[in-house]
Specification:
alpha+beta; endopeptidase fold (from Nostoc punctiforme); 2 domains; two-stranded antiparallel sheet; 40% helix; disordered N terminus
Length: 327
């Protein structure tokens, strides 16, 4: 991806979405973000108004039965003194598996809100179609997932459900985050104050990446002496013992906790997407602090450090891999 001078960012803002002052403040805020251990992040695309609006629209389409299931998920979670993040994970799983309906049918012998299978030892048919039993069973299984609190909610849901379509839980993330706030009166699910401080890992990540400066960009390469953009970021985090997906689109959706760009820290993954669309990610870079990124640019160029740029494609959310993914 061809770099565009950072001065263009200051002239155009986020493709006209933000004014000059807002962009300048955003970039300035990144410098302080690296020193902030309690950075807040949204459950979907950061704590953005767009994500909240999308979640609200999706929630408005739910019927009374679905709302009742959501309320019960939250009530049971509160009774068990689980965090709002746990409620959100359960809501995402229920919405994806059954559209938040207590079904008496499903694929093979799958039943209930979470489509639990009696043949897979989830319980008897009567149990898995009992709303309280199924919610408690889901929470029981979630608590057995190592590092679930540090995972993206959809990734945690997949760790419980073990679906053949692991990324689909992310599609209802903004709706689940909105419902947790709407039904419970709390917005704590919309932050990642409990996300891991990866400072002890990022030194290894950035050190590895810096050693690759000057290596040629080759599409599809992932080292040891040549890289494409996502091959470099994947190998850098692997150097710290953390596994992230191979391609940039998957790194965005499943690479770790989502954090507002203004709260970026060294080691975070920065993304660009066509039309600023998070489903059209085409480039990823490693944020290294002071408004600079380290990346493998494009064919004919070499791994380099450069100023963060926009070009109308910079996404407002970065991804922070975590020690929960450490191998």
């Amino acid at each position: 991806m061809r770099k565009i001078a950072v001065v263009l960012v200051l002239l155009t803002g986020f493709g006209g979405l933000l004014g000059v002052g807002a962009v300048t403040g955003l970039l300035a805020g990144m410098g302080g973000g690296e020193r902030t251990s309690g950075a807040r992040c949204g459950a979907a695309l950061g704590a953005s108004a767009a994500a909240d609006s999308r979640g609200r629209r999706m929630a408005q389409g739910l019927g009374s039965e679905q709302r009742r299931v959501v309320q019960r998920i939250i009530e049971v979670g509160k009774r068990r003194e689980l965090s709002p993040r746990a409620w959100q994970i359960a809501i995402q799983a229920g919405k994806t598996e059954s559209n938040l309906r207590n079904l008496n049918y499903g694929h093979a012998d799958s039943l209930g809100v979470f489509q639990m299978r009696p043949s897979m030892n989830w319980g008897t048919p009567q149990q898995v179609t009992n709303l309280d039993y199924s919610i408690n069973k889901f929470y029981d299984e979630l608590l057995e997932v190592d590092g679930w609190k540090d995972m993206r909610p959809g990734t945690a849901a997949q760790s419980v459900e073990r679906s053949a379509f692991p990324t689909r839980y992310h599609e209802v993330e903004s709706m689940a985050a909105y419902l947790v706030g709407d039904e419970s009166g709390t917005r704590t699910s919309n932050d990642c104050s409990g996300s891991p401080n990866t400072g002890e890992l990022t030194a290894k990540v950035v050190d590895y990446a810096r050693k690759q400066l000057g290596s040629p960009y080759v599409w599809g390469a992932e080292g040891p002496n040549r890289f494409d953009c996502s091959g470099l970021t994947q190998r850098a985090w692997a150097a710290a013992g953390v596994e992230i997906p191979r391609v940039s689109q998957d790194q965005y959706h499943s690479g770790g906790a989502m954090v507002p760009l203004s709260k970026a820290r060294s080691g975070d993954l920065v993304f660009w997407g066509h039309g600023r669309d998070s489903n059209s990610v085409h480039h990823v870079a490693l944020y290294i602090g002071n408004n600079k990124v380290l990346h493998a640019p494009q064919p004919g160029e070499k791994v380099e450090i450069t100023e963060l740029w926009d070009g109308g494609e910079l996404l407002p959310t970065v991804v922070r891999p975590s020690r929960a993914r450490a191998s």
